[in-house]
Each structure stands twice: as structure tokens, then as C-alpha cells.
Amino acid sequence: RTPLASIKALAETIEAGNVDPGPETTEFAGRIRQQVDRLTLLTNELIELSRIESGAIKLKPVAVDLAATATQAADLLKTRSDLSNVRVELPAAGPTVEADADSVLRAFSNLLDNAIKFSPDGGTVRVEFATDAGDAVTFSVSDDGPGVPDVDLPRVFERFYKSDSSRSQPGVGLGLAIVKHIVRAHGGTVQAANRPEGGSRFEVTLPRRYAGPRPRTFRA
After folding, report:
1. Domain at 106, CATH number
2. What residues contact 195, with CB distance under 8 A and at least 6 apart?
3. Given its phi and psi angles, is residue 20 left (phi above 0), alpha (psi -120 to 50 degrees) or beta?
4. Which of 35, 72, 98, 178 is the Cys-Cys partner for 210 at CB 3.0 to 4.6 Å?
5. How many domains does the chain have?
6. Is a pLDDT exceeding 80 seen at residue 37?
């Protein structure tokens, strides 16, 4: 509703003749465009989330090199990280899992985007891999930002949820919800925690071989 309310207010101001032709009109038009862009992003992410939840997106499991996928995601976000003066550290090599390549790329992109968003100027975002003795692979994305208030940790993967400390940040509040549903569709788990040294850490565990989605116990 927020983008629509902003568009309506700006359009009504112009319609009422309260804006003189010239720079002010150009500014108002730019603000309308920004809100339209935000609404478009919201619509696209809602559609994607709904398709993932409903099973409309058919996963195509293939061998996915997690290190290469993380690098691809970082490359897609390079302009954003450069503008924010945030360094992204990536492992040179990593494990391979059987998963849907596009979905894993989206999960990495959303986690990196979130970490960059909350990193301070000159901060560092780190991607790390770990394997256990069984059939699971874990990767994490961490930052050295302010971290997540403890009271908000259980809710960070809910759609549209934003803690009080993150309301000033851009975004529509669906990125982490999409990550959660992608991971669950692969039979994996995702969790968020605060690092003792500061910042937050998001950890994803995926089975090495695709085995279908985890049973759903709640709807966020």
C-alpha cells in the first residue's frame, strides 16, 4: 500500500496545480517513477514467492557448484557492493549439490543482497562452506553490520517482516522469505543468528542429493 499511497499523493499534487512546471515537476515525476519501480519489484517478488509456495515452479535438479554460484551472485551484485564500499569474500572452491541451479542462484543473491544492505561502509561480507560427515552441505553468508535484534531473529524469514532497525533500508521484505521457501523446496533448512564478534550470519543446509521438499509445518 505504501508505494500506491505515494504515487496517489504525488499525482494529486500535480493534478491540483500545486507544482510549477520546471525542476519541481521533474522531481515529482522522478519520485513517481521510483515508487512504480518499487511496486513492480514487490509484484514480481510476490508472484515468485507464490509460485514457489504453490509448487508451480518445477525444480530441475542438476549438479550445482556452490562456489561458482556464489561468485555468479556476487558478480550480479557488484555494482551494489561497490557503491556501498562493501567487499565480498568468496571461497575459491566449494562443494557440489544436486539442486535447481536458478533457485540456488536466487537464494545466494538474496542472502548477499541482504548482507550488503546492512553492512557498514568499508564492511566485509563473507561466504563460507562446510560439509558434515553425512549427506548434507552447509553454506553461510555473514556480515559485520549491526546484527539482528534477538527478538526479531525468529521472524526474519516471514514475508514483509522488517525489524524497527531495518525499516529505513530499501527493499520490500520478501527476499529472505523467498530464500526460506527455496531451501525448504530442496529439503533443506535455513537459520539466522548473530555473530559473537558482531554482525549477522545466515546459514543454509542442503542435502547433497535432491530428495524433494521438507514437510511444511507453518506458513510465513
Report:
1. 3.30.565.10
2. 142, 144, 147, 201
3. beta
4. 98
5. 2
6. no
CB atoms closer than 10 angstroms to residue 71: 18
Q: In this structure, are strands 87-89 and 189-194 parallel, antiparallel, or unpaired?
A: unpaired
> Residue 131 pLDDT more than 80?
no
- Rounded Cα distance, 190 and 137, in Å: 12
Same domain, 119 and 174: yes
Sheet holding 189-194, edge to edge: 87-89, 124-131, 136-142, 200-207, 189-194
What is the SS3 assignment for 99?
strand
The residue range of the domain holding 159 is: 61-207
Residue 213 belongs to a domain: no
Cα–Cα distance list, 47 to 51, 69, 79, 152, 212 (Å)? 6, 24, 26, 25, 22
Output the 3-class SS for 136-197: EEEEEEECCCCCCCHHHHHHCCCCCCCCHHHCCCCCCCCHHHHHHHHHHHCCCEEEEEECCC
Express each pLDDT in 166-180 by its tens digit.
Answer: 444 555 578 898 999
Report DSSP state, residue 19.
S
216, pLDDT greater than 70 = no
CA triple 127-130-132, angle to 5 deg? 160
* 76 and 166 part of one domain: yes
